[in-house]
């Protein structure tokens, strides 16, 4: 019996070695393939013109679209030429609203807005709201019909039972509140608004505030991250199955940010106050909407203090404000991104924001101003 067992073990050892050797070869082959095709890399999004020629890197959308101090082209109320068209191209996007070329269209109407057509003169009985802001208001990475501005318009109109026009004035001039104020004084008032809503992104406090902060308590990479194949496998596993690096969560402290970037934050505050002072004598309602960054929404959101910094400033200065962060907390931010290389809100995120705003306005209804 002993001899037979030893003989069987002798036969099993080479078999185990052969299996192990096969796994090593397969792993080496897989590693080589992963390195060759770069499966875990995506090209950055690009802005294309009407002929699909590259204009620039879409990650720099504020610099591509948010030009300062530029006189409107003839016939336009904004920096955009009437009837212009461009496209945002993404490398292998996940969502089905992208067209067959993996693009999202940016179409400008006859008045210079990324919006459906509407008349300059406000029709009788229409409630008109101007939504001013940056790339979140312009709705980078989604179709115009999916942006929070258009969705809010539909919800307000349904609730009111009468015409509502919410004008998408994203990037009408610049991308910060200090640029919105002079635009409203020179061009926005021509639209005869009943209310102005400023879409506030946290990088209005300082342009150094990132759209995305990676998890502070990140997965510890297998083999120190040296193997691309193992990184791909690790990313494919549920995060609960992976080891964690023992690091403290990152939290942006409002006092430190405000002090470090005092000039930028002061310019933003001055811009909001200038808008308040412009609109108040005209009886135009003014609301600031604070949007969250799509980062760590379910795992220790690091920007909470900055939200309070903005809403506290508004409260102290007689400016209405609504923070839509609570509607996003607890969600997987990757399901709300336009693309892994673009952390703007996708169509689902835009809808969440519109729903939160519609609920807020349901308790504080907008109405045509008294003339």
CATH homologous superfamily annotation: SGNH hydrolase
The CATH top-level class label? Alpha Beta
Global morphology: globular
Rg over CA atoms: 26 Å
What structural class do you assign from the helix and strand content?
Answer: alpha/beta
Strand order of the largest sheet: 6-5-7-8-9
User: How many β-strand stretches?
Assistant: 11
**Largest sheet, strands/sense/barrel:** 5 strands, parallel
> Low-confidence parts lasting 5 or more residues at pLDDT below 50?
1-12, 19-39, 239-246
Tell me the helix content. 25-40%
Task: Explain the overall architecture.
The chain is of the alpha/beta class and 371 residues long. The chain has one domain: SGNH hydrolase (Rossmann fold, 3-Layer(aba) Sandwich), CATH 3.40.50. It has helices spanning 2-37, 61-65, 135-138, 148-160, 177-186, 228-236, 254-260, 262-279, 304-316, 347-363, and strands spanning 46-48, 54-57, 85-89, 103-107, 127-133, 164-170, 195-200, 285-290, 320-323, 337-339, 342-345. Helix 4 (148-160) runs parallel beside helix 10. The protein is globular and about 70 Å long. The termini are far apart. Residues 1-12, 19-39 and 239-246 have low confidence and may be disordered.
Write a concise keyword list for the protein shown above.
single chain, 371 residues, alpha/beta, Rossmann fold, four-stranded antiparallel sheet, globular
Write a brief caption for the model.
The protein has 371 residues and is an alpha/beta fold. The protein is 36% helix and 15% strand.
């Amino acid at each position: 019996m002993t001899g037979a067992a030893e003989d069987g073990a002798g036969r099993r050892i080479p078999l185990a070695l052969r299996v192990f050797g096969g796994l090593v070869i397969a792993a080496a082959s897989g590693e080589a393939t992963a390195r060759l095709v770069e499966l875990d890399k995506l090209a950055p999004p690009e802005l294309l013109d009407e002929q699909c020629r590259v204009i620039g890197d879409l990650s720099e959308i504020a610099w591509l679209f948010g030009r300062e101090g530029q006189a409107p082209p003839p016939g336009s109320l904004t920096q955009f030429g009437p009837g212009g068209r461009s496209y945002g191209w993404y490398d292998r996007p996940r969502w089905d609203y992208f067209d067959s070329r993996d693009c999202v269209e940016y179409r400008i109407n006859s008045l210079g807005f990324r919006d459906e057509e509407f008349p300059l003169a406000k029709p009788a009985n229409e409630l008109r709201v101007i939504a001013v802001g940056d790339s979140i208001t312009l709705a980078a990475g989604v179709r115009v019909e999916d942006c929070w501005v258009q969705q809010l318009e539909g919800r307000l109109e349904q609730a009111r039972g009468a015409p509502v026009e919410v004008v998408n004035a994203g990037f009408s001039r610049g991308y910060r509140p200090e640029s919105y104020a002079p635009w409203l004084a020179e061009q926005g008032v021509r639209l005869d608004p009943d209310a102005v809503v400023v879409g506030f992104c946290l990088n209005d406090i300082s342009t150094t505030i990132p759209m995305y902060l990676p998890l502070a308590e990140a997965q510890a990479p297998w083999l120190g991250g040296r193997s691309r194949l193992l990184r791909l496998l690790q990313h494919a596993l549920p995060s609960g199955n992976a080891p964690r690096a023992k690091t403290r969560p990152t939290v942006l402290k409002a006092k430190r940010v405000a002090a470090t970037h005092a000039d930028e934050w002061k310019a933003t505050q001055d811009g909001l106050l200038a808008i308040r002072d412009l609109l108040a004598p005209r009886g135009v309602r003014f609301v600031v909407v604070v949007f969250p960054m799509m980062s760590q929404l379910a795992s220790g959101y690091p920007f909470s203090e900055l939200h309070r910094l903005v809403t506290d400033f508004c409260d102290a200065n007689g400016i209405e404000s609504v923070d839509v962060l609570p509607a996003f907390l607890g969600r997987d931010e990757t399901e709300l991104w336009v693309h892994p290389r673009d952390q703007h809100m996708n169509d689902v995120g835009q809808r969440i924001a519109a729903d939160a705003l519609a609920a807020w306005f349901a308790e504080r209804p907008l109405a045509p101003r008294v003339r």
